[in-house]
Amino acid sequence: MKQLLKYLKPYKKESVISPLFKLLEAVFDLLVPIVVKLIIDKGIGGGDMGFVGWMCALLCGFAVVGLTCSLIAQYFAAKAAVGFSTDLRRDLFAHIQKINYTETDRIGTSTLITRMTSDVNQIQSAINLTLRLLLRSPIIVFGAMIMAFFVDVRGAWVFAVVIPLLALIVFSIMLKNIPLYKRVQKNLDRVTTVTRENLNGVRVLRAFRKESDEISRFNEANEEHNRVQNFVGRITALMNPLTLVVVNAGVIVLLLSGAELVRIGDMSQGDVVAMTNYMAQILVELVKFANTIFTVNKALACGDRVQKVFEIPVGMERLSDDAVGGNDAVCFKNVSLTYAGNATETLSDISFRVPHGATVGVIGSTGSGKTSLINLIPRFYDATEGTVLVDGHDVASLDTEQLRASIALVPQKAVLFSGTVRSNLLWGKNDATDEELWAALSAAQAKDFIEKKEHGLDEPVAQGGKNFSGGQRQRLTIARALVRQAKILILDDSSSALDYATDAALRTSLKALSYRPTVFVISQRTSSIRHADMILVMEDGCLVGTGTHDELLASCEVYREIHESQYKKGGDAV
């Protein structure tokens, strides 16, 4: 949490002004019982109603000045807290964008979302309360005790006993709650995870009529969160009754001892009222202080969670560029991959070479490692063994941004972002002209349906591209990749929603691209890759076949089985 305080540096002025004006407000609050004492003893006791009027006017003046100080303090505290959270959230988001896939998989998307939203909001609230109350409340408490000694030393001993007891209660409960708040936030992560999965898969849930099962799973996570939250709440709830008991006991002692002193003439009635008012101020401020402490406790737990995200190393280690191997576009040398936390290898001893401009098909059953294989080319993951080379250089020795700038990837899931068709295509190339965008749409077989849209390139795109069909979304994501005109084009099963005619037209247009990229096509259909210069056949993380379509039909049983399962004996598609 300490490391996060650097985000308060731009708001030093606000962080000083807010407590300062709260201090001024506290000073005026502490003077009120003295004025009330004078009204009772000198004004009412002496029958001087003019004095009473002047003192009442003075109290009104204190109220106006105190309100002004409070508003100024609240404004600057809010400005510092909101500015702090804005800067923190911006840097946190930027840091998360740089975290590699391995760390993202380990932490979990839902946890990162919770830490950037709920946790940061909790820290913001704590800073706001701290600037407004953390200084004011102790000043009121100890100031009330000091003022009580000025009023009457003999009655002030009660304050010397009450305040340490109250401090003991507050800090004991605080120390108990700090680890519990961490559990609360961890359980909130789980609730967020379940909720996110359900919202993303709502169509699948309804299709398989699994609503009741998922409701039960959510209820289980929610009940556990509720159980821990209630436990923390019960401990926190002890604060008010315990402090009330101690303070009210102090008030009773004050009234008893004060009544006796008034009876014998050693204390005035105004002194008793002033002492009682100071004790009431202590009670009110301690309640505020307790709430501030609990909010700060939550913020400390949240701050540790946010700080742990910042401690995750960004990017990937860059090695010295001493592994040069030929001029192939892509080369795998005895590559193996094991995901973090997995006991078994996902890829085992993969080796192949791809010349520039070649088209490579990758095929295999579900879970055979096709996507894991191509994820190593842009270095989304590091190979645990072996070497991946691009243009003869080990990808681990290349600058990650430059490497990925030379690669255009179309993922399995067609992902579009809210905006327009133009804004989505410009992800491929920021300064692309309209001619380049239309050329990419044409090559991706998307030009026809975009031209029919009312706004053309400026046609709105809903979140996730939900206002387009599955095939249209896939073609738009392919167009986005083609706009880049990258040296390497990776299509990860990106034509699964296309009909055979559109798929064939797409393959033809890719071969006709003027800049001749090296193309990797991952597909479940042999028809999509049968004309590739090279086909890689994957099975259980191993490369079991390499060659052309005809060569693999003759030599690779796995490929032959896949092909025959999709085609009838006469060669027609099933």
Task: Please provide a written account of the structure.
This protein is 62% helix and 10% strand. It is built from 19 helices and 12 strands. α6 runs parallel beside α10. The chain is elongated.
At a glance:
The chain is α/β, with parallel strands linked by helices. It is 62% helix and 10% strand. The chain contains 19 helices and 12 strands.
Offer a few descriptive terms:
about 575 residues, alpha/beta, ABC transporter transmembrane region fold, Rossmann fold, six-stranded mixed beta sheet, four-stranded antiparallel beta sheet, 12 strands, elongated
CATH C-level class of the domain at 2-310 is Mainly Alpha
Count of helix runs: 19
Helix content: 55-70%
Q: How large is the share of residues in beta strands?
A: 5-15%
Main structural class: alpha/beta
Shape: elongated
List the helices and strands and how they pair.
Elements: H1 12-44, H2 49-98, H3 101-107, H4 109-134, H5 136-151, H6 153-200, H7 202-207, H8 211-237, H9 239-264, H10 269-310, E1 330-337, E2 347-354, E3 359-364, H11 370-375, E4 385-390, E5 393-394, H12 400-405, E6 407-410, E7 419-420, H13 421-425, H14 434-443, H15 447-451, E8 460-461, H16 470-483, E9 488-492, H17 500-511, E10 518-522, E11 534-539, E12 542-547, H18 549-555, H19 557-566
Parallel strand pairs: 3-10, 3-11, 6-9, 9-10
Antiparallel strand pairs: 1-2, 1-4, 4-5, 7-8, 11-12
